[in-house]
Amino acid sequence: MSLIPNHNIPGIKESLERNIYLSTVIVKKEYRKNGIAEKLYDTLLSKFSDRRIFTRTWSTNTAHLHLLDKNDFYEILCEENGRGDGIDTVYYCHEPEKKRFIDVIRQYHLFGSISFFVMLVVFAVTFVIVWIDTDSGILHELSIAFATSLIASALCLLSETFIKYVESKNDEYIFRLRSFGIENLLFHKDSVLKKIIPKCKNELWITGYRLIMTSKGSFRSAILKACEHTEGLNIRLLFVPMWSDTYKRVYDDDVSLCYINVFYTLCRCITEYGAEVEIRTTEKPMFNDTYKVDDRIITGPYLHCADSLNHRLITAKDFFSLDITDSNKELYRLMEGDYSAVWEQSTERFNVGKLIALLDSHEKFESLINMTAEERVRLLRSCIETPSDISAEKMLAKTVE
After folding, report:
1. I need a labelling partner for 397 at 20 to 30 A (CA). Which of 26, 51, 67, 281 fits?
2. Would you say the C-alpha torsion 9, 21, 57, 108 has a positive or negative sign?
3. What is the pLDDT of residues 169-200, one digit of tens each?
4. Do 238 and 287 touch, CB atoms closer than 8 A?
């Protein structure tokens, strides 16, 4: 195992601080699977428990990835195709178990502030001594004026330094979110979705109540771009329909146009780019708009509120969003498993063929926009297949065969 102290990694600002970079770890082939690499890592983490430890590997190196996950390393940077076509270079980081006071001072560049504080205190004490030693006169008055001013400045500087030190604890908490597989704690998921959806290479899951975000023009364009770049992209749409009791427990507004916009975009994905699209509904409550773009999950939380009559309501607000990027972490597996379970237990699905017939032209799309909400809902519900319809369809196909 070879190490480089305080190695600067381009693109990772945290590496500018005191760290250890693990450049190489190798076990001879005939000695592998004997726990030697684990012992090397144990020694490394024990020896440098007060420093961040960085390393890198490639996305198909499953043995090393498993070892990194086991030792609580988390992904911090991914260079797409860094080791060749389809093989990414992935950087990992391990947070220090304990951070020394001197490390916090160095990290937040507080040496200058502390030095200036000490200098102010020394001068203030000097002027106080001069004031005590003089009974009257200009020097007596000036010394107490200077001492008072310097003490006030020193207190202000001490307060600012203390605030920065406290902020370091908050930053450490936010940074540790990555150990759960959370890349960003965002206040708006619009920007990250518009950035990552067009790069989707395998599958796109869309889940939510109102599909407000997906119905925006920018997101529909992002979905079309993804389908344009990836032939046969797999798209899943799972939503709570506005005509269901579950929806009415959360919202009371008309969002049928949002559904129409999203469905029209998905129909274009099918007819123009050959996307594989499946749409299902569910009566089960779930997180607000959630997206799975390949191996990345963007989601947000529930809020439990009460109205003026003290009726408890469940609302889904984007007061913050989670960007979950590490598929090896338990949080990721829980989120994916939750939505997969709701998907599998869904009792209704859309007949995509009927939906395309309903929205196969811009003129029909425009006519739906001009309809009332009840008319739009009635037409959309006519495209839904029940389990009996699906069974009958399978039976007919089997009979014909």
Report:
1. 281
2. negative
3. 666 665 666 666 666 666 567 778 888 899 99
4. no
List the 296-299 sheet strands across, edge first.
182-186, 321-324, 296-299, 290-293, 203-208, 234-239, 276-281, 348-350, 384-385
Cα–Cα distance, 175 to 315 (Å, whole number):
28
Q: Please, what's the b/e burial string for 80-103 (b: 16 or more CB within 10 A of its CB; e: otherwise)? A: eeebeeeebbbbbbbbbeebeeeb
Give bridge partners of residue 75 from the DSSP assignment.
Answer: 92
Query: Is the distance from CB of 15 to CB of 9 less than 8 angstroms?
Result: yes
DSSP for 103-130 reads HHHHHTT-HHHHHHHHHHHHHHHHHHHH
Q: Which amino acid is at 286?
A: M
Per-residue model confidence as pLDDT tens digits over 325-376: 877 777 888 888 888 888 988 878 999 988 888 887 767 777 877 888 888 8
- Would you say 181 and 329 are in contact if contact means Cβ atoms under 8 Å apart? yes
Helices then strands, each counted (H, E), the chain: 15, 16
Q: Rounded to whole angstroms, what are the CA distances from 244 to 211, 248, 380?
A: 15, 7, 13
The per-residue pLDDT for range 296-309, each reduced to its tens digit, is: 988 876 555 555 56
Q: Provide the pLDDT for residue 399.
A: 53
Supply 250's token pair. 């959360």
Helix 256-273 vs helix 373-381: crossing angle, to nearest 10: 40
